[in-house]
C-alpha cells in the first residue's frame, strides 16, 4: 500500500496529523475517524508502552489516516517494533547531529540502506504481502529538530540520504532558547521555524511541526509547513470540555 503522505507532499498539500497521547484504542479510533490525513501514536510523552501502541495502530488503520509513531528515543529495538506493528512513518525525538539522524535512518530501512531487522508481523497486514519490497520507500522518516544544537546542525541532518525530512518540536526548542515552552510567538522561535521551512524547500525535504493551538496551527499553515499536528488528544478534550462548561456556567 502506498503512503498517502508522500502523495500529499508531492502535490504540495498540507497534511493534518492527529496525536494520540492516551493509551486507549477506542479513543485513537474516534480521533482517526475525524478526518486527519495521519495519526501519530506518541511513545515519547504518551503514558503507555509498546503493547498499547499495537492496538492503537490497529485502531488507526481502520480508517484512511496514515498510522505514524513517535518513538520514545532513537532506538533500533523500539523503532523496529513500531514498524513491525504497522507504523508507516516514524517521528524520532531529539535528533541533534548528523550522526543521530544517520542512526535513526538506519533503524528504519532494511539493508543495504540500513540495519532494520526482518519481522513485520503487522507491517504485512497493513502494507500488503509485498511489504518487504516497498517498505524502504514507503515508510516516512522524520527527525525532530527541537534543540539549539539540532537547529545549528539542521542542514547536515536534512542532508542525510533517505531521511525524508524533519518534525519541529517548538516546545523543547523554546525551552532550549531560555523561553517558556508555549512561547512559539517569540521571534527566536518563529525565525527558527521559518528558516527550517526555507531549508526544507531548498533541499526538497518534508517539514512538519506540532502546534498546540488553532492559532499556532493556522500560522504554521501560512508558513508553508507540509504537516501540522494541531494539538494532542488531551489538549482537544480539555479545550472542548472547558468551552462547554464555560458556555453553560
Ligand atoms: C515539542 O514541542 O518539543 C514536541 O516534541 C512536540 O511534539
Ligand atoms: Mg519535544
UniProtKB/TrEMBL annotation:
Xref: SUPFAM superfamilies: Phosphoenolpyruvate/pyruvate domain
Origin: domain of life: Bacteria
Signal peptide span: none
InterPro entries from the UniProt entry: Aldolase/citrate-lyase_domain, HpcH-HpaI_aldolase, Pyrv/PenolPyrv_kinase-like_dom, Pyrv_kinase-like_dom_sf
Keyword check for Chloroplast: no
This protein's UniProt keywords: Lyase, Metal-binding
Residues of the HpcH/HpaI aldolase/citrate lyase domain: 19-238
GO-annotated molecular function: lyase activity
Family from the record: Belongs to the HpcH/HpaI aldolase family.
Name of this protein: Aldolase/citrate lyase family protein
Organism lineage string: Bacteria, Pseudomonadati, Pseudomonadota, Betaproteobacteria, Burkholderiales
Amino acid at each position: 500500500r502506498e503512503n498517502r503522505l508522500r502523495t500529499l507532499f508531492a502535490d504540495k498539500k498540507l497534511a493534518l496529523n492527529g496525536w494520540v497521547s492516551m493509551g486507549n484504542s477506542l479513543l485513537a479510533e474516534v480521533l482517526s475517524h475525524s478526518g486527519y490525513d495521519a495519526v501519530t501514536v506518541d511513545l515519547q510523552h504518551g503514558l503507555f508502552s509498546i503493547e498499547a501502541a499495537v492496538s492503537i495502530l490497529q485502531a488507526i488503520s481502520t480508517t484512511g489516516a496514515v498510522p505514524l509513531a513517535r518513538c520514545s528515543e532513537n532506538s533500533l529495538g523500539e523503532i523496529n517494533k513500531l514498524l513491525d506493528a504497522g507504523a508507516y512513518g516514524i517521528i524520532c525525538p531529539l535528533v541533534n547531529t548528523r550522526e543521530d539522524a544517520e542512526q535513526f535512518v538506519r533503524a528504519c530501512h532494511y539493508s543495504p540502506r540500513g540495519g532494520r531487522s526482518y519481522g513485520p508481523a503487522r507491517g504485512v497486514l497493513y502494507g500488503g504481502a509485498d511489504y518487504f519490497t516497498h517498505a524502504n520507500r514507503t515508510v516516512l522518516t522524520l527527525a525532530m529538530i527541537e534543540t539549539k544544537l539540532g537547529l545549528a546542525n539542521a542542514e547536515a541532518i536534512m542532508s542525510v540520504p533517505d531521511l525524508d525530512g524533519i518534525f519541529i518540536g517548538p516546545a523543547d526548542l523554546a525551552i532550549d532558547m531560555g523561553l517558556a515552552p508555549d512561547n512559539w510567538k517569540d521571534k527566536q522561535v518563529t525565525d527558527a521555524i521559518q528558516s527550517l521551512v526555507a531549508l526544507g524547500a531548498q533541499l526538497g525535504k518534508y517539514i512538519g511541526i506540532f502546534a498546540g493551538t488553532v492559532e499556532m496551527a493556522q500560522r504554521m499553515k501560512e508558513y508553508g509547513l507540509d504537516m501540522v499536528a494541531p494539538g494532542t488528544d488531551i489538549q482537544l478534550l480539555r479545550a472542548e470540555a472547558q468551552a462547554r462548561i464555560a458556555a453553560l456556567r
